[in-house]
Give the backbone structure.
Amino acid sequence: MINTMKYLLTFVCGCLCGFVLFGFNEVNDELKQLQMYTEMQQYSLDQLRHEIADIQQEMIKK
């Protein structure tokens, strides 16, 4: 009876740990995707800033 309870408790703890680790892995993947998206947006913003600066310099020359 005690051995059965130990095995059952070990199985339940193992399942819980598996679900927690799987959840952390999913969250980590989502954070990586969000970071990549943010970096792409920052790159686009930097490109726009350079284009605006170029246009401003052209307008000053004229």
About this structure: The chain has one domain: 1-62. Residues 19 and 48 are 44 Å apart (CA to CA). The chain has a mean pLDDT of 89.
